[in-house]
């Protein structure tokens, strides 16, 4: 087993997170050496692959799980505003990279797709109206429309209304400024540019473990999955952006910050339609309300998808369970992640989430007929022959210690970093890819505190609003939204 010379940065995993962090570091510290290791034959094959996610460009414009209803019926827009702020940082970064020639024509990775919410039943209609009233005057939600009129909703997207039973209470909101993002294409373009700028991106190489060296650098043991040779790469800084594979690698590093964390894997499927006559009738992403016990990532939605220049429709996701932490992972991933320090929190989560377990069992056992029935709740005219099932990406929800309950299941993302900032990783799922830029800025600030102040002027060139809140000023928010829309050529 050979050992290479020390490099400045090793990025583990070929997804949007590693691609974003590597891109930022190359601009902020161009003299640093960067190596990337991906276990599959190409980058962007797991959660960043276009068909393994919905590409919504999560801005909380339509996702009800970012604005849950309180027990007293109240709605708080704070989390929705926060998610939207984060997505605007990503948009500003992409806009900068388009102008800098790092990214190709915008329509190769981002396209217009109005974001809508659609609900049925009197209680849900009342909730959606309260949500609309709370959001409509906020700067980042400007242009939101609300209607309970079937004719108006049918004008927005006819597939929701055609052959729907008359007299049923329904309501919808719509924001034309929504987008569809091909994170697979975006990830490929970022890695291509990183290679041109000097980074080494190596596929079909599996990182087996990470160990701290006596000088506080990191030894990364890497196996060549083609030639089966092994090597040890030494790095000053390590980022673990390996999706569901991040937990075990961070555990192998021995950092105390990972203690108490576990992972709960959720698999899924989508129904997909490529029939151009049907696709042409639905140009939107339409989200509904999650079933009781369903995880937020399982909120049903009927989406326009633009991948490789071709437009399709996607409906789902249909959640399921497998112990794998990656789509191309191992059946031993879940049991292999159990440690003495996370067993208690994991058991506490199991105790407190019976509704989730019941929901997942029902989803696993659901027939194709039941899946089509769920689609017809959105699209009454859906025909079996126009839709086929595809397997979605694997998601691993974070389980962590909690002082009151012993353990909690967290639906979001969690940055785990060592005290000295020499290693960091990302756990969790939604909103994930859409907020890659702000999450990576968070890592830069936590892991490189001595350099961050010096980097700030360049960061603000890339993201003009960095350090401020767009939501606090209507005029500033409007200018930022208009500028990125013009550069990315969306919503024009």
From TrEMBL:
Pfam families: Mqo. It comes from the Bacteria. InterPro entries: FAD/NAD-bd_sf, MQO. The keyword Oxidoreductase applies. Keywords: FAD, Flavoprotein, Oxidoreductase, Tricarboxylic acid cycle. The keyword rRNA-binding does not apply. One of its GO terms (molecular function) is (S)-2-hydroxyglutarate dehydrogenase activity. One of its GO terms (biological process) is tricarboxylic acid cycle. Its EC number is 1.1.5.4. Pathway: Carbohydrate metabolism; tricarboxylic acid cycle; oxaloacetate from (S)-malate (quinone route): step 1/1. It catalyses: (S)-malate + a quinone = a quinol + oxaloacetate. Its cofactor is FAD. PANTHER family: L-2-HYDROXYGLUTARATE DEHYDROGENASE, MITOCHONDRIAL. NCBIfam families: mal_quin_oxido, PRK05257.1-1, PRK05257.1-4, PRK05257.2-1, PRK05257.2-5, PRK05257.3-1, PRK05257.3-2, PRK05257.3-3. Belongs to the MQO family. This is Probable malate:quinone oxidoreductase. The lineage of its organism: Bacteria, Bacillati, Actinomycetota, Actinomycetes, Micrococcales.
């Amino acid at each position: 087993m050979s050992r290479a010379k020390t490099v400045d940065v090793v990025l583990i995993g070929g997804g949007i997170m590693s691609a974003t962090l590597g891109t930022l570091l190359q601009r902020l510290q161009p003299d640093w050496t960067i190596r990337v290791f991906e276990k599959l034959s190409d980058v962007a094959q797991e959660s960043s692959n276009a068909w393994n996610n919905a590409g919504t460009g999560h801005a909380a414009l339509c996702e009800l799980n970012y604005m849950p209803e309180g027990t007293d019926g109240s709605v708080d827009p704070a989390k929705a505003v926060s998610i939207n702020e984060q997505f605007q940082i990503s948009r500003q970064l992409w806009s900068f990279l388009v102008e800098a020639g790092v990214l190709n024509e915008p329509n190769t990775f981002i396209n217009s797709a109005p974001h809508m919410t659609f609900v049925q039943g009197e209680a849900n209609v009342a909730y959606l109206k309260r949500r609309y009233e709370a959001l409509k005057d906020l700067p980042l939600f400007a242009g939101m429309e609300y209607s309970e009129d079937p004719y108006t909703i049918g004008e927005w997207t006819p597939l929701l209304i055609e052959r729907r039973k008359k007299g049923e209470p329904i309501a919808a909101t719509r924001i034309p400024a929504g987008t569809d993002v091909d994170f697979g294409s975006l990830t490929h373009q970022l890695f291509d540019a990183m290679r041109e700028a000097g980074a080494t991106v190596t596929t079909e190489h599996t990182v087996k473990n990470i160990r701290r060296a006596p000088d506080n650098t990191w030894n990364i043991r890497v196996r060549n999955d083609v030639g089966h040779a092994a090597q040890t790469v030494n790095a000053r800084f390590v980022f673990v952006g390996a999706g569901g594979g991040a937990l075990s690698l961070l555990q192998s590093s021995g950092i105390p910050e990972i203690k108490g964390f576990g992972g709960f894997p959720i698999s899924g499927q989508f129904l997909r339609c490529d029939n151009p006559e049907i696709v042409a009738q639905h140009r939107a992403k339409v989200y509904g309300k999650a079933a009781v016990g369903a995880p937020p990532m399982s909120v049903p939605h009927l989406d326009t998808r633009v991948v490789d220049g071709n437009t399709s429709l996607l409906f789902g996701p249909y959640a399921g369970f497998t112990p794998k932490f990656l789509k191309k992972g191992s059946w031993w991933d879940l049991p292999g992640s159990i440690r003495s320090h996370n067993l208690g929190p994991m058991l506490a989560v199991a105790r407190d989430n019976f509704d989730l377990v019941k929901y997942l069992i029902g989803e696993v056992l659901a027939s194709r007929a039941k899946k089509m029935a769920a689609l017809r709740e959105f699209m009454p005219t859906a025909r079996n022959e126009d839709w086929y099932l595809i397997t979605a990406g694997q998601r691993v929800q974070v389980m962590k210690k909690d002082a009151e309950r012993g353990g909690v299941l967290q639906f979001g993302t969690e940055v785990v970093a060592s005290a000295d900032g020499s290693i960091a990783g990302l756990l969790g799922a939604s909103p994930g890819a859409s907020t890659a830029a702000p999450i990576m800025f968070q890592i830069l600030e936590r892991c490189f505190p001595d350099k961050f102040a010096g980097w700030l002027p360049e960061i603000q060139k890339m993201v003009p609003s960095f350090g401020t809140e767009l939501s606090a000023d209507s005029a500033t928010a409007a200018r930022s939204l208009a500028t990125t829309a013009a550069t990315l050529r969306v919503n024009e």
